[in-house]
Amino acid sequence: MQNDEFYIGWMQEAPKSFSAWIKKYLFVLLTIIIMLGVLLALSQKKFDSGNFEFGKLTEVKGIYFSKPVPVIKVIDGKDIWGNENYITVPLIGFGKHGADGVIADIEKEKNISLEAKEVTLKGTLLYNDGKLLMQIDANDEPLISVADAAINIADLQKIKQLGTTDIKGEIVDPKCFFGVMKPGEGKPHKDCAIRCILGGIPPVLKVTNEEGRQNYYLIVGADGEKMNDMVQDYVAAPVTIHANAVEYGDWIVLYVQQNGLQHYSYIQEHYNSAYVACSANCLK
Amino acid sequence: MGASYSAVGWNRQKKIYDWIIFSFCVVYLATFIVLTAIFNPDYTFETVLIRSTSTLAVLILHVILSIGPLTRLNKKFFPLLYNRRHLGVTMFCIILVHGAFGILQFHSLGNVNPFVSLFTSNTHYDSIADFPFQALGFFALIIFFLMAITSHDFWLHNLSPKIWKTLHMFVYLAYFLVVMHVMLGVIQYETNPVFIIIMIIGAITLISLHLVAGLKEARKDKINYNLKEEGFVFVCGVTEIEESRAKIFCIDKERIAVYKHEDKLYAIHNVCKHQGGPLGEGKIIDGCITCPWHGYQYLPQNGQSPPPFKEMVNTYDVKVKDNKVWLNPMPYAEGTERPGANIR
C-alpha cells in the first residue's frame, strides 16, 4: 500500500488502490453468489406433485360417515359389472384443524345428524398420489344440501379385516402432505405436522416399500378412538406400528394396539452392536 | 462521534455500497427462484421464499463474519468494514422474511398461539436428531434483531461502547445457532450432500480466517521490549515510523500507538473510543489521528477528538535518544496534553 493512500468511509471516494481491490473482491463474491444460487436451487429435493386448489371451491356429493375419521364416500364411475365405485374423501378443516368442529356446528345449527346422509359439500380439494381430501371451512358455508341416502348404506360400510400387522413408516398430517405444503413431511415440516394433528387432522402413516412406492394408512386407536394427542412425539420420525388393519374401500385404517406405536431405528435394527445401539440412543 | 445524530449520513461511498448489497441480493434471489421454478414446476411460493431468503441470509452472515479478519489481514478490505452494519441490517431484514413466513406457515392457524406452538409442538429438547431446530433459529433472529436496532451510533454511545460491543459479539452465538438450525433442520431432510458440504466449507473458512488473523496479531503482541531506562522502554528506531503514520507496541498487555507528525513523535492508546478500532493503523489527516475503521479523529498531542466532539484516549510520554524511540507505558489520564518528542 502506498503511504499516501488511506481509506476513510466518510470521504466521497475511496483511494484508487482500495477501490480496485474491492472491485476484484466483489467480482469473486458475485461469482460465488451466482454459483451458490445455481447449486442450491438445483440440489433441492424434487417438490411433490401434490395440489391444493387454494381459493377454488368445489361442490362434492357423497355419503357422510364420521367413523373411523370424517369422510364422504363419493361415486367414482362404475366397475365392469356396472356397480358403482366409491372413493373415500377424508374431510379436514380450515388451517390446522380437523373437520369435526365444522361438522358438529352444522349438525347443531341445522339440528340434524349428517351420519350416513347424502350430503353435498362445498370446499377446497387437495390431492396427490391417488388420494383426494377436502377442506371444509365454516366461513364458506360448506353444506349445500343434505338428504337421506338413496343407496344401501350397508354396502358402503363393508369392511375387510386384514389382520394384525407390524408396519414401519412416518406419521404425517395428510392436509400438508397431500397438497398444502411442500415438503409436507420430514424434519423441516415436523412442527407443522404436529400442530395439524393436535388440531384434529387425522394422522396418516406414510409407508415406502422396497420399490420406493408409497402407501398411506389412516391411524386410530385400538377401539377406533382418536389418537391425535398420543402421536405427538412420533410425528415426522421413523416409527413402527403394531395394529389391526381394516380395509374401508380405498383406504386402510390401522387400529393401533396398546403400546403398538414405537420409535424405529434402522441402525439399531440392522447393526446390533452395543456401540451402535449406544450411539443411536444418544442421538435419539 | 457526531455531536448530534442523523438517521444515516449518506455519501457517495455508502450509496454505492448499498446499491451493491441490493443488486447482489436480487441476483441471488432471482437465480435461486427462477431456477427452482424451471426445474421444480411443482414448487410453492412460500417454500421458495423461505428457502431463498434463508440461504441468502446464511451467505451474507458468512460475508459479515469474514470482514473483520480480512481487514486484519489486508487493509484493502476496509471499505467493506466501514459499512458492515448496512450488510447486517440487510441480513436481518432477509432473515425476518424467512422467520415470519416460517412461523406463518408452520405455526399459524392452529389451536394455540404461533409462538407457543413454536416451542411446544416438538418437545424433543433432549434429543439431537429430533431437536426442535426452529427454536434455535428464533433465538438467532432475536440476537440479529437486537443487533440491527442498536446498529446506529446513537445506541453505541448511549449503551457505551463496551456494552454495545459485547452485545454485537453475540453474533458468534447467533452464527452457532444458525448452523445448528440448519444442521438439525433442513440437512436432515435434503439428501444431496451439497448442503452439508457448503455449511462445513463456510464454517472452516470462517474459523481459518479468524485463526490466521488472530495469530498474526498475537505474534505482534508477543514481542518483548527488554531494554528499559527510568520507566521508558526502547521500542524501535526513529526511521521505522513513517511520517503521518504509527507503529503499535504492546507493552504490559496494552497496545500503544506511536505516531510521527511534523518532526515529532506522539504516543496514544491504540484503542478507538468508537468501536475499538486500531488507531495505530490509521493516519494523520488534517492534523488528526484518523481511525481506519470509521474515521474517528483524535489530536496527537492530547488524544482528544477535535471540538465539538468529546472522545478522549490515554496519552503517553515518548522520547528520542540517538535516533532511538523510547516509550513510557504509564498512561496519562485520557485527553492529557503531552508535548511529544522532537526527532531532530
Automatic annotation (TrEMBL), chain A:
Keywords per UniProt: Membrane, Transmembrane, Transmembrane helix
Segments crossing the lipid bilayer: 25-42
Protein name, as recorded: Uncharacterized protein
UniProtKB/TrEMBL annotation, chain B:
Main location: membrane
The Rieske domain, residue ranges: 233-327
Cofactor names: [2Fe-2S] cluster
Pfam families named in the record: Ferric_reduct, Rieske
Residues passing through the membrane, by range: 16-39, 45-67, 87-108, 128-149, 170-189, 195-215
One term under GO cellular component: membrane
Keywords carried by this UniProt record: 2Fe-2S, Iron, Iron-sulfur, Membrane, Metal-binding, Transmembrane, Transmembrane helix
Protein name: Rieske 2Fe-2S domain-containing protein
Organism: Panacibacter ginsenosidivorans
Lineage, uppermost ranks: Bacteria, Pseudomonadati, Bacteroidota, Chitinophagia, Chitinophagales
